[in-house]
Design a protein that fits this description.
It is a multi-pass membrane protein. The chain is of the alpha+beta class and about 850 residues long. It contains 33 helices and eleven strands. Strands 1-2-3-4-11-5-10-9-8-7-6 form an eleven-stranded mixed β-sheet, with helices on both faces.
C-alpha cells in the first residue's frame, strides 16, 4: 500500500512539474498576454485600485470613447483588469482555461480567436448598450457613462470558439454553463463589462466553426436523461445565484437588479433611526427603523441568502436525477413566484401617492414591472417540461427520517428560543412572555425580507437576545440543507425503491438467469408471489404487462409463478408478456398453450477451459498485445466510488456515443450510465499511463444459491479517437480476470432483434406457423425491424462482433398468452426500448433507416 501511495505521489509531482513548464512552451500567447497585463497594470498604477483615470480615459472601452473616436479601446480594454481581484481572477482563468485551449487549438488560432472576440465582442456589446436606452432610460444611462476593461472578454470568447471542437458532452456543458453565468451577470449586474462579455461569447459561438472547425462527431444535441438533468441543474443554479448576486453587490444596475428586494430590507441608516426614536421612542416608525437595522446584520443576511443556498442543494439533487429535488425545486420556485408577485403588490399598494421603495406605476418601463416574476417563472416552466429526467427515488424511509429530523430540530430550536428568551427577557424591547415567544418563534425561521410586511412582535436589545433573534433561523436552514443533501447521497436503485430493495435481496438469495440483474433497474415495477419467495419485474405500456426476463425465485415454483402473475395481470386488465426469457421458461409457457418467438441470442463464454489460443482468436490476441504495447491496462472500478477524473471521462464517452446516434439512448434491456451507477455492478476500464480512459465495460452479477457464479456484460463504450480494439481487449481481460476469481461463466448478453440463423430456428418458425399465423407475422416483422434499425443501433453488427470470442449461443424468447394482442405487444416493446423519441428524432431515424442520413 505504501509503495502504491508513493508511486501515485511521484506521478502527481511529475505532472505538477510538467504543468509548471507548460506555460512558456505550450501556450506562449496566453502566458505572454498574462505577463503583459500585469506589467501594464503595474506601470499605470492599476493593480490595487483598478484602472487609473488616465487608463479609463484613453484605453477603456465605452460608448463615450467611441463617440470621441477612440476606436482602439475595443482592443486595449482587454489589457487591464478592474482591480487586484480582477487581476487574480484573470490569472486563474488564463492558467486554467486560456492556456489549455491554446495548447489544444494552436497558438495561431488562439491569437486570432482572442483578438477577434475581444474586438468584435466589444463592438457588439457597445452597440447593444447604446440600444438599451431605448428600452430602459435608467439602465441605458448607466451603460452610457460606464467604461469596461478586463481580459475576461477574450478569455470567454476563446472558450466559446474552442467549444466548436469539443466533444459533445463538454461542448454542451460549456455552452450552457457559460451562457447561464453570463446572462445572469448581464441581467442582474448589468454593467457594461457584463454586456461586452456576453457579446464576446456570442461572437465566439459564431466564429468558432470558422476558426477551429466543427467537432468530427457533429453538433447533434441528443443526450441521455442523466445529461439532461445536469443541464437543468445548471439553469437552476444560475437562477439561484442571480438574486444572491444582486443582494450582495451594492452597484448592480441590470433589469433584474430589483430582485435584491427579495433579500434586502428597508435601507434605514443609524442616524435616521436615532432621530426617529428620539422624537418617539415607542412609535411605530421607531420600531420599523430598529427592525430595518436588525435586517442588516450578518445573521439576517445569511438567513436571507438561505433560499438560494437551498436551491443550490436542490440543483445537486437535480444533477443526480432525484425526484424529490424536482418536486422541491418546483415548490420553491412556485413560492418564489408567488412571493415576488405579493412583494410587488404590497409595494405598489403602499407606494400610491408617494415615491416607491421598489418601483411603481410611475415607472416608464413596463418590463421592469414584470422582471421580478420572470426568473422563477422561466425556471418553473423548464422544470415542468423536463419532469421525465427526474425519477430517481431514495431508499425506503429516507425522507420519513429527514422530516422527523427537521421536526425534531425545529422543536429543539423552539425550546431553546423560548427558554433563552425567558432567561433574557429583559433583553427585548418589551416583555415577551411564553405566549409571545411561542408566537414569535415561527418568524425566526423565515428569511427576514418577508417579515417586512409584518409588524415585529419583539425586537432584541442585548447580545444574548440578538443571538437568539438572528441566528435561530440560520441554524435551522443549515441543518435543512445538510439533511436534504444527505438524502441525495443515498444510493437509489429504482423508481420503486422499496420493492427494488426487496427484489435485490430475493435475487441474491435465490439467483436467476444471466439477465436477472436487469430486473433491479429503474422503470420496473414488481409483483411478488403470495408466499414472498418469487417476483416478476414488469412495466405496463399500452395495456401490456411486459416483463424483464424470467421470474426470479425457486425453479420448482416457476410454473406457479407464471400462472399467478398472468392471473394478476389479467385481473388488472393487462395482457401478460414475458420478454427476453430463457428456453426453460418457454418450455413452461408452451406447455400452458402460450405462443412464443425468439427475439435475441445470448452469447455465453464458459470459463473453466477458456484460453484465447488458436487462429480463431487471432483478433482477440492482437487487441491484447496492442494494448500491452501501447501501455494500456485493464482496471476494475466501482462507478459510484471511482475518482471523478475517471467517471467524468466515462460520462463524456457515453454522451459522445449517444450524440453520434442522434437518437435517445435505448433502455429496457440495454443499460446506460444510470445502470452502472450501482455498487454491485463492476466496471472494467481501459486506461493508459496518463489515466485517459479509452473504453469501459460493465458487468452485472449472476447469483445462484446466495453466491456470484458469473457475470453479464451490459454497458460497452469506447472513446471515438482512442484505442480502437478497446472492446476486444476489455472483454478478453474481463474473462481471464473473472476466471482467476473462480467465476463459472461470463455472458456477453444478447443483442435485441438479432439472432443466429440456424436450421433449428427455421424449424421453430414453421412450428410457430402452425400454431399461430400472427406469431409468425410478428417474428418476421421483428426481423425486418432489426434489419432497418441496423444502420442506427447496429444490433446485428454487435452480435457479429461477439462471435470473435467463439461463444455458446443461447436463444432468448418472448412468450405471450393471447396472439390477438400482438399489435399491442409490438407497440409496447418499441416504446419500452425508445420511450422518448421526439418528432425530430423520429424523422432522423426514418432517414437513417432508408439511407438518407449516413
Amino acid at each position: 500500500m505504501t509503495q502504491v501511495t508513493a508511486t501515485a505521489a511521484t506521478r502527481q509531482t511529475r505532472r505538477l512539474l510538467e504543468l509548471a513548464g507548460f506555460g512558456v512552451t505550450g501556450a506562449p500567447v496566453s502566458i505572454g498576454l498574462l505577463v503583459l497585463i500585469w506589467v501594464m497594470g503595474a506601470a499605470t498604477g492599476s493593480l490595487l485600485s483598478g484602472p487609473s483615470r488616465y487608463v479609463n480615459r484613453h484605453f477603456a472601452a465605452g460608448i463615450g470613447a467611441f463617440e470621441d473616436g477612440r476606436v482602439w479601446t475595443a482592443f486595449t480594454a482587454g489589457l487591464w483588469a478592474p482591480g487586484l481581484a480582477g487581476y487574480l481572477v484573470a490569472t486563474a482563468l488564463v492558467l486554467l482555461v486560456a492556456a489549455p485551449i491554446e495548447h489544444r487549438i494552436g497558438s495561431g488560432r488562439f491569437a486570432l480567436a482572442a483578438a477577434s472576440t475581444q474586438v468584435l465582442g466589444t463592438l457588439l456589446g457597445i452597440g447593444v448598450a447604446a440600444l438599451v436606452k431605448l428600452v430602459d432610460e435608467g439602465w441605458g444611462f448607466r451603460l452610457h457613462i460606464g467604461t469596461a476593461v478586463g481580459p475576461t472578454t477574450w478569455i470567454v470568447g476563446v472558450a466559446m470558439v474552442a467549444s466548436s471542437r469539443m466533444d459533445t458532452l463538454w461542448r454542451r456543458r460549456t455552452r450552457v454553463g457559460v451562457f447561464a453565468l453570463l446572462i445572469t451577470l448581464a441581467l442582474f449586474g448589468g454593467h457594461l463589462e457584463d454586456i461586452i462579455r456576453l457579446a464576446a461569447a456570442v461572437v465566439g459561438l459564431v466564429l468558432g466553426p470558422w476558426i477551429v472547425g466543427r467537432s468530427a462527431r457533429g453538433a447533434r444535441l441528443a443526450g441521455t436523461r442523466r445529461e439532461g438533468g445536469v443541464l437543468v441543474a445548471i439553469v437552476v443554479a444560475a437562477g439561484a445565484l442571480g438574486p444572491a448576486l444582486a443582494a450582495l453587490s451594492p452597484n448592480v444596475v441590470g433589469p433584474l437588479a430589483v430582485l435584491r428586494e427579495l433579500f434586502r430590507g428597508v435601507p434605514w441608516t443609524p442616524d435616521e433611526v436615532r432621530a426617529i426614536c428620539a422624537a418617539s421612542s415607542n412609535g411605530e416608525e421607531c420600531r420599523r427603523g430598529l427592525l430595518g437595522l436588525r435586517l442588516g446584520g450578518v445573521g439576517p443576511t445569511l438567513l436571507s441568502l438561505m433560499p438560494s443556498i437551498f436551491l443550490l442543494v436542490l440543483a445537486d439533487g437535480l444533477r443526480r436525477g432525484r425526484r424529490f429535488a424536482w418536486i422541491a425545486a418546483v415548490v420553491v420556485h412556485a413560492i418564489l413566484l408567488a412571493l415576488s408577485v405579493a412583494n410587488y403588490v404590497v409595494r405598489f399598494v403602499e407606494s400610491v401617492g408617494e415615491e416607491s421603495l421598489f418601483y411603481g406605476l410611475d415607472s416608464p418601463n413596463l418590463y421592469r414591472t414584470i422582471t421580478p416574476f420572470l426568473t422563477p417563472l422561466v425556471i418553473l416552466v423548464v422544470l415542468l417540461l423536463t419532469r421525465r429526467f427526474f425519477d430517481v427515488a431514495a431508499p425506503r424511509g429516507t425522507y420519513r427520517r429527514m422530516w422527523l429530523l427537521l421536526l425534531a430540530v425545529a422543536a429543539g430550536l423552539g425550546l431553546v428560543y423560548v427558554l433563552g428568551g425567558l432567561l433574557a427577557r429583559n433583553g427585548f424591547d418589551r416583555d415577551p412572555g411564553v405566549a409571545g415567544l411561542l408566537a414569535d418563534y415561527p418568524q425566526r425561521l423565515i428569511p427576514p425580507v418577508y417579515l417586512q410586511w409584518l409588524d415585529p412582535r419583539l425586537l432584541p436589545d442585548s447580545a444574548a437576545t440578538t443571538l437568539l433573534f438572528e441566528w435561530t433561523g440560520v441554524v435551522f436552514w443549515v441543518v435543512a440543507c445538510v439533511a436534504v443533501l444527505a438524502t441525495f447521497l443515498k444510493p437509489a436503485y429504482g423508481a420503486e425503491t422499496e420493492d427494488t430493495e426487496r427484489a435485490r435481496k430475493l435475487l441474491c438469495a435465490t439467483g436467476g438467469s444471466p439477465l436477472s440483474w436487469m430486473t433491479t433497474w429503474r422503470g420496473n415495477k414488481y409483483w411478488f408471489s403470495p408466499d414472498g419467495t418469487s417476483y416478476v419485474a414488469y412495466r405496463v405500456i399500452g395495456g401490456v404487462a411486459l416483463t424483464t426476463g424470467d421470474p426470479v425465485g425457486p425453479p420448482d415454483r416457476l410454473r406457479d409463478t407464471v400462472t399467478d402473475f398472468a392471473e394478476y395481470a389479467s385481473g388488472s386488465g393487462w395482457v401478460p408478456c414475458f420478454y427476453s426469457v430463457t428456453g426453460g421458461l418457454r418450455e413452461v409457457t408452451d406447455s400452458m398453450g402460450w405462443s412464443g418467438i425468439q427475439v435475441a441470442e445470448e452469447t455465453v463464454l464458459r470459463l473453466d477451459d477458456l484460453a484465447f489460443t488458436g487462429k480463431k482468436f487471432q483478433d482477440v490476441r492482437t487487441a491484447v498485445n496492442r494494448a500491452k504495447k501501447d501501455g494500456i491496462g485493464a482496471e476494475w472500478i466501482s462507478f459510484p466510488d471511482a475518482p471523478l477524473a475517471i467517471t467524468d471521462q466515462i460520462t463524456a464517452i457515453s454522451e459522445e456515443w449517444v450524440a453520434d446516434k442522434g437518437m435517445p439512448e435505448m433502455g429496457f434491456t440495454l443499460g446506460g450510465l444510470e445502470e452502472i451507477d450501482d455498487p454491485q455492478v463492476r466496471c472494467l476500464v481501459a486506461v493508459d499511463a496518463e489515466r485517459t480512459v479509452h473504453g469501459v465495460t460493465s458487468w452485472m452479477p449472476v447469483y445462484r444459491d446466495g453466491r456470484v457464479v458469473g457475470w453479464t456484460l451490459d454497458f460497452m463504450r469506447r472513446r471515438s479517437e482512442g484505442f480502437r480494439p478497446a472492446m476486444e481487449f476489455l472483454i478478453a481481460s474481463a474473462a481471464m480476470l473473472l476466471k482467476e476469481e473462480g467465476a463459472e461463466f461470463v455472458s456477453l448478453s444478447g443483442a435485441p432483434l438479432a439472432k443466429v440463423s440456424s436450421p433449428e430456428a427455421a424449424a421453430d418458425t414453421e412450428e410457430d406457423l402452425e400454431r399461430s399465423t400472427l406469431s409468425t407475422v410478428l417474428d418476421r416483422l421483428l426481423d425486418v425491424l432489426g434489419k432497418t434499425l441496423e444502420p442506427v443501433y447496429g444490433f446485428r453488427s454487435l452480435l457479429a462482433f461477439k462471435s470473435k470470442f467463439q461463444p455458446e449461443y443461447v436463444p432468448m424468447h418472448m412468450t405471450f398468452a393471447d396472439p390477438a394482442a400482438l399489435p399491442s405487444i409490438g407497440n409496447a416493446i418499441g416504446r419500452a426500448y425508445l420511450p422518448e423519441v421526439s418528432i425530430g428524432q423520429g424523422v432522423r431515424l426514418v432517414r437513417t433507416m432508408i439511407g438518407g442520413d449516413r
